[in-house]
């Protein structure tokens, strides 16, 4: 498999700038998630890589091979793309085996070895080969769709919100199986999603898209811990954002004196603290607060508290076995460093 290099990719639909100069490198044999809200340009990017449409400006290379620029475009069928759409991609009148081997040359279609290898790769039992799509669960159907996409050994695999029709549990387990199968096959893949949990848990690299721009590209842990700006911070997870004053490696804010990451500039700022960084203590050091709402999710819980004496409200995340009682008095401390952003205009001048 080859890597993918995108430079200055631009696509307008009338007055709408669907893509406004996108640069992206997808290393060979890795999975990149394009994460962004509805209408930000994710599908347009995928369609350009597939060759279903041509760019107004910019280039797309598969390895060293230029496949797309405004006046030259390799047609989709000659790009060796594997494509996994949202749902309903399987031929309902063909058995699983025939769906998977559909795009293979006739001789290869008869080989049960390749079929067995592909079923094994997507963790489907060999007995599913003779079933029809309607005899499979939604998650199994999506794994068949991936096996079909991988069958001809494509250069790049494109996955367009492939888990969005599955319920939460199935989404997670199918996502994991699909990511493992892509790694095992050594595939270079792009996964389009608006689901941050999916992007963070499955991808090697997350590319956050907003209004036709990629605003941050990096490993999941980096994007979560050090988002490019407050909007990315909120998009990839729950965020506590507080006005602060930074001096050296510490910031003073409503949650007391907290450590900030290296390189944060002195002066007024906004700090990002993730809810799981906030520790709730019965007493002792820390900022006093009164517990308000507790929302229990089983594995964990969120606790909204009002800092004393006069706010603001802060939401922390704790394990489901350690939830405080609403109305109780607690003290809060912050574990690990906060990430600093420039101060909001109103706090900068105050
Ligand atoms: N063929 C088209 N004609 C006109 N406008 C289009 C066309 N395709 C996309 N757009 C517009 O371009 C922008 C980006 O659309 P795109 O489908 O790429 O977004 P998206 O991030 O994939 O959204 P979603 O998650 O809802 O699928 C949107 O404003 C959309 O309305």
TrEMBL record:
ABC transporter domain sequence ranges: 4-236
UniProt EC number: 7.6.2.9
TM regions (residue ranges): none
GO cellular component, one term: ATP-binding cassette (ABC) transporter complex
GO molecular function annotation: ABC-type ferric iron transporter activity; ABC-type quaternary ammonium compound transporting activity; ATP binding; ATP hydrolysis activity
Keywords: ATP-binding, Cell inner membrane, Cell membrane, Ion transport, Iron, Iron transport, Membrane, Nucleotide-binding, Translocase, Transport
InterPro entries listed in its UniProt record: AAA+_ATPase (IPR003593), ABC_SmlMolc_Importer (IPR050093), ABC_transporter-like_ATP-bd (IPR003439), ABC_transporter-like_CS (IPR017871), ABC_transpr_FbpC (IPR015853), Mo/tungstate-bd_C_term_dom (IPR008995), P-loop_NTPase (IPR027417), Transp-assoc_OB_typ2 (IPR013611)
Keyword Mitochondrion: no
Designated name of the protein: ABC-type quaternary amine transporter
Biological source species: Sphaerisporangium album
């Amino acid at each position: 498999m080859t890597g993918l290099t995108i430079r200055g990719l631009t696509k307008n639909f009338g007055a709408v700038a669907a893509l406004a100069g996108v640069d992206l490198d997808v290393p060979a044999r890795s999975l990149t998630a394009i994460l962004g809200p509805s209408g930000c340009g994710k599908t347009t990017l995928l369609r350009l890589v597939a060759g279903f449409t041509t760019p107004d400006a910019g280039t797309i290379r598969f390895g060293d091979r230029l496949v797309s620029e405004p006046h030259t475009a390799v047609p989709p069928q000659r790009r060796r793309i594997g494509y996994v759409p949202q749902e309903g991609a399987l031929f309902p009148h063909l058995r699983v085996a025939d769906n998977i081997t559909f795009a293979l040359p006739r001789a290869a279609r008869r080989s049960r070895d390749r079929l067995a290898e592909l079923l094994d790769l997507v963790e489907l039992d060999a007995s599913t080969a003779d079933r029809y799509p309607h005899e499979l669960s939604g998650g199994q159907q999506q794994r068949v769709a991936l096996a079909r996409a991988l069958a001809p050994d494509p250069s790049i695999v494109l996955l367009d919100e492939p888990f969005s029709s599955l319920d939460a549990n199935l989404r997670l387990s199918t996502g994991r199986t699909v990511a493992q199968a892509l790694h095992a096959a050594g595939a270079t893949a792009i996964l389009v999603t608006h689901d941050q949990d999916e992007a963070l848990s499955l991808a090697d690299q997350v590319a956050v898209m907003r209004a036709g721009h990629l605003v941050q590209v990096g490993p999941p842990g980096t994007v979560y811990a050090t988002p490019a700006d407050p909007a990315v911070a909120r998009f990839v997870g729950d965020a506590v954002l507080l006005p602060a004053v930074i001096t050296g490696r510490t910031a003073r804010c409503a949650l007391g004196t907290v450590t900030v990451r290296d390189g944060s500039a002195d002066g007024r700022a906004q700090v990002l603290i993730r809810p799981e960084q906030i520790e709730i203590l019965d007493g002792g050091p820390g900022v006093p607060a009164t517990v308000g709402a507790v929302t229990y999710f089983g594995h964990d819980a969120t606790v909204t508290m009002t800092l004393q004496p006069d706010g603001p409200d802060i939401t922390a995340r704790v394990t489901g076995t350690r939830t405080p009682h609403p109305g109780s008095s607690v003290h809060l401390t912050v574990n690990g460093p906060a990430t600093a952003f420039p101060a909001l205009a109103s706090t900068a001048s105050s």
